[in-house]
Amino acid sequence: MFVTLSAVAQTEGTARPRRPRFHFDATNPDVHDPVMAREDGVYYIFSTGMRLSSMASDDLMTWRQGPALMPDVPQWATTAVPGYFGHTWAPDIQKVGDTWVLYYSCSTFGKNGSAIGLMTNKTLNPASPDYRWEDQGMVVRSEQHTTPWNAIDPNLLVDKKGRAWLTWGSFWDGIQLVRLAKDLKTPVGSPRTIARRYQRRGMNEQVPKEDLERAQQAPEAGANAIEAPFIVRAGRYYYLFASWDYCCKGANSNYKTVVGRSKKAEGPYLDRRGRDMASGGGEIVAQRDDRYYGVGHNAVYQFDGQWYFVAHGYSVAHNGASKLIIRKMHFDADGWPVLD
Fold it and tell me: What Cα–Cα distance (Å) separates residue 259 from each residue in 32, 240, 284?
């Protein structure tokens, strides 16, 4: 994110460069893992950052920085996740009843010793006297060398029957799904895998050589490069969006956004050709183009009858900086999402 260098300091006769300063770009902001909400005509983006980052806009075009969300780094999180000190990943925000619920990820790069927590608030407006994020504690946890999945990148779905589901996952055994109790915090039963990048059998033969080399940078995670699930209901279907391949490498990022759909919240989620996402299926929605090296970690919303696709992309014009993408979206005659 650091895009400029400040002046050079002189210390005891030796020039020492100061730490680069981040300058917020109001019309083309840097962001990672964005999710969006709207309240009282104001749009809010929440994203990865120290104690979680936020920004707001009245028109989806010009943004202003907001406060960090966490009042304090939760003690339970630093205990449960060794190496986590407050840099918090991949939130998910939704309103359930009259309460805003926000899930967040506590982890460290390349390891699946991770946890997902929950915060709640009555309002998203920092100027309101009712504005106060209250931590509700841990929802799910994965233990390094023990759990076959990674507890990051949460997303909440409330289905048409009013049942709550939590989906999450990154690498390891892919995208997980579990029912939640009415408290939106307690898992009901055991999670199961609903999407993978590659089928587990013969994975090494399926993975391109370039991606196998990238996987060696985080060997515990392996090459099952899928993460960032987001499920939304539209018409007769539930749509599962996910990100394939590698983020976070600037101009070397090759993120892709894929989708499958199901008539049931619990799946199976099939792509346009009928392939199950649990066995490597997925229809590509967004990928590398002239403007971005990769596009991923998306969310999908409908405001005033218009669908929006929200993601981050590694900008060609900004040397691979991770920039906010908001594009209008519609569903084609066969009911598949298409970016405008």
Answer: 20, 5, 7
Amino acid at 302: Q
Has 271 been annotated as catalytic? no
Global pTM exceeds 0.90: yes
| C-beta separation of 67 from 126 below 8 A | yes
Please classify residue 38 by burial: count the beta carbons closer than 10 Å to its beta carbon, then call 0-12 exposed, 13-18 middle and 19+ buried. Answer: middle
Helix (H, G, I), strand (E, B) or coil at 334: coil
pLDDT for the residue 21: 57
CB distance 45 to 63 below 8 Å: yes
- Which two three-digit tokens encode residue 277? 């996402």
Is the pLDDT assigned to residue 337 strictly greater than 60? Answer: yes
Q: How large is the average pLDDT for residues 90-114?
A: 97
Catalytic residue among 30, 33, 153, 283: 33
Of 122, 80, 125, 127, nearest in space to 105 by CA? 80
Contact yes or no for 217/257 (Cβ under 8 A): no
Tell the residue number behind the tokens 């929200």, with chain if given.
310
Q: How far apart are CA 306 and CA 241, in angstroms?
A: 18
Instruction: Specify whether 227 is catalytic.
Output: yes
Q: Which residue of the set 227, 245, 271, 283 is catalytic?
A: 227
Residue range 16-48, pLDDT digits in tens: 445 455 689 999 999 999 999 999 999 999 999
